[in-house]
């Protein structure tokens, strides 16, 4: 394993190995036998090394500054960061996302036609069912494989963006009490925002295609359940906005608390000499209570978003089925 760790196996992996993540088998086997140490980990690929990424960003930033001077506009860091990622990677992500959308729509369509064929056929044979089974299997495999590849590549791109925002010069210019907040909150938000942009990029197409498929396969009653998702999306946007504002408020309170702790530690001799420990303890506790209160409020909004995310499908399905039963009672009465 030590010889293999000289070079990242992903750089020399073939197409099937990259597609199935077979190049990670060696370290997976080793990890199942013993705890992994730093010497066992793969070296970072050249394209993902922080030194190269920062150098590429500096080069693109100079290009952005020159272009802004010529156009008389203000240079934008995000444009330089976006150019660090190659066009090939953008095209790959777009193709993978399009593939996911196609398979997302194709799978329920094939299943619907399969169920109709076996319910109306007088006799069921392998010749009629085998193509549907093969089609369902291929679509499911393609969907899962494409989604895994898209997630992996998007994580790589998001991590690069995170590295670029954690440039050493930025950290050196940041005061000490804000460094932890920058690394744990802001940098993490940058990584998550890249993943969110990928997920949202084709959301409109997914929604339109899903509604058209529901209308065709079920009935207009399915649209009633679809409105639940619109309501959840509206509330999620509002809750995320409120949670973001509260996070900024809690970060400001946390900075104030850390600054006070820094002053206490710096002047600990004076605090001890005048026996001010309890006074400062009460001040820190008061600020901490305010910080915890803001964290709890933000936690309420975030937890409600997650709760609706995991339950909205069941709620929408229940509303759709209930509406279908109430508005088409004659059909189901005849069946009974």
UniProtKB/TrEMBL annotation:
The keyword Transport applies. The keyword Membrane applies. It is found in: Membrane. GO terms for cellular component: membrane. Residues 91-336 form the ABC transmembrane type-1 domain. InterPro entries: ABC1_TM_dom, ABC1_TM_sf, ABC_transporter_C-like. It holds the Pfam family ABC_membrane. GO terms for molecular function: ABC-type transporter activity; ATP binding. The chain crosses the membrane at residues 90-115, 213-238, 299-326. Gene3D superfamilies: ABC transporter type 1, transmembrane domain. Its main location: membrane. PANTHER family: ATP-BINDING CASSETTE SUB-FAMILY C, MULTIDRUG RESISTANCE-ASSOCIATED PROTEIN LETHAL(2)03659. It is a multi-pass membrane protein. Keywords: ATP-binding, Membrane, Nucleotide-binding, Transmembrane, Transmembrane helix, Transport. Belongs to the ABC transporter superfamily. ABCC family. Conjugate transporter (TC 3.A.1.208) subfamily. This is ABC transmembrane type-1 domain-containing protein.
């Amino acid at each position: 394993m030590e010889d293999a760790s000289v070079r990242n196996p992903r750089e020399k992996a073939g197409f099937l190995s990259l597609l199935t993540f077979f190049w990670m088998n060696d370290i997976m086997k080793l990890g199942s036998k013993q705890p992994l140490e730093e010497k066992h980990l793969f070296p970072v690929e050249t394209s993902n090394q922080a030194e190269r990424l920062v150098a590429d960003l500096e080069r693109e930033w100079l290009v952005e500054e020159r272009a802004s001077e010529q156009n008389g506009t203000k240079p934008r860091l995000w444009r330089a960061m976006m150019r660090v990622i190659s066009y090939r990677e953008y095209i790959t992500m777009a193709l993978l996302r399009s593939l996911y959308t196609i398979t997302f729509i194709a799978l329920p369509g094939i299943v619907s036609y399969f169920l109709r064929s076996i319910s109306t056929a007088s006799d069921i044979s392998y010749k009629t069912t085998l193509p549907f089974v093969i089609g369902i299997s291929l679509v499911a495999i393609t969907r899962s494989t494409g989604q895994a590849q898209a997630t992996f590549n998007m994580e790589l791109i998001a991590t690069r963006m995170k590295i670029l925002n954690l440039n050493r010069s930025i950290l050196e210019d940041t005061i000490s009490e804000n460094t932890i907040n920058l690394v744990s909150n802001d940098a993490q938000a940058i990584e998550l925002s890249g993943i969110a942009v990928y997920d949202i990029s084709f959301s409109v197409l997914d929604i339109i295609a899903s509604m058209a498929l529901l209308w065709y396969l079920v009935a207009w009653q399915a649209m009633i359940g679809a409105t639940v998702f619109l309501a959840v999306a509206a509330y999620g946007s509002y809750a995320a906005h409120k949670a973001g504002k509260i996070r900024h408020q809690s970060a400001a309170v946390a900075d104030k608390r850390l600054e006070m702790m820094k002053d206490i530690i710096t002047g600990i001799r004076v605090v001890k000499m005048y026996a001010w420990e309890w006074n400062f303890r009460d001040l820190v506790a008061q600020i901490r209570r305010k910080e915890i209160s803001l964290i709890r409020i933000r936690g309420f909004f975030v937890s409600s978003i997650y709760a609706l995310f995991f339950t909205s499908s069941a709620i929408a399905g229940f509303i759709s089925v209930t509406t279908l039963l109430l508005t088409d009672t004659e059909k189901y009465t005849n069946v009974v």
